[in-house]
Amino acid sequence: MAKKPSKLLQSESPPDYIDLDALERASRDETYWQWIHQTDSVRPVKPTRRRRGEHSTACKCPNPFFSRPEDYKPLAGELGYAYRRLIKRDRKTRQASLRMRVSRHPYFVQLREAAGRSRDFRPDRQHLIDALVPLLISCADISTHIVAMNLSKLAAALSPKDENNEVIPETAVTVTRICRLIGELITFGLLELPTGVQWDRINRHWFPKHVVLSEQLWKIIGVNIDKIYAQQSERLHAEADGFLSAGEEISVRAARKRWYERMRQATLVRRREEAVKQKRVKKYGKLPFDDRLNAMAKWLVKNLPADEVCQMSTDEFERMAHLRLYQLNLGLDDPPPDNIH
Predict the structure, then answer these.
(1) Fewer beta carbons below 10 Å: N end or C end of the chain?
(2) Full domain range(s) for residue 166
(3) Of 91, 1, 78, which Cα lies nearest the Cα of 234?
(4) pLDDT tens-digit map of 122-165
(5) Within a domain: residue 43?
(6) The pTM is what?
């Protein structure tokens, strides 16, 4: 069976959309098609005001480490056992090093997808977990397992320090790294936040968040759960002797609730004092130094007990006025001397 000729062959002239001159030039010019593909691959640049900074995005402290100083008193009971499970110290050189890497525990592999992760931790986060867990155990309360140290102090404790025991800014552990890691440890169930996040409606700020070391964290470290709960109960009874009646018991939940109430009350008092302090700073800052000193003396007479004011000499009263102004950063450039005259 004969094949029918195509319409292009049947027609006497090619269609109008075929440019024969362009095909002829393309056959002679080797760079023609290269130029065609190059123009197709170039995309117009989207206008934007975003600019890449010149700072480095590398981690400033990729391998942090924490160990308790040798002159510190050893942790008691199971807390001390948990710390020694994580940190060891060479008997000859007295150099501290990691005994156990918490970040390499199979628990993180098993619950990786449940925690919303698809990959393993990066090396810098692994080292941060290994350094943060001994620090949390070192500063946890023995009766409630609450960590009361704030994020900035945690970051400073993990950061390298110079010969003056001051944090080196170029190699410091940032607060954002600690904050993100604590949130991830809460997701994995190693830390707990029983009260959640609460809002201070008076001062329009969040109340401080205090995490609790969970039972799963103690299991990963290898602590005897029965012993640590017995130690916790003994401590609770010892603390309850001062403010509970005879025979009354207090649970871990009640102790944590009472602790959170005390911390919340202390936060309100501190914020109220700070607001009053800023009000005085704003009021006294507009006055000359002599009027400022006079206003502070009037404030001391009004707020201090009358017997305390009467028992002070004139030099002591003047020095106290100078000290209060210096505490508000409204005094002289140098701190007040021991003797005014």
Answers:
(1) N
(2) 77-240
(3) 78
(4) 999 999 999 999 999 998 888 888 888 888 999 999 999 998 88
(5) no
(6) 0.61
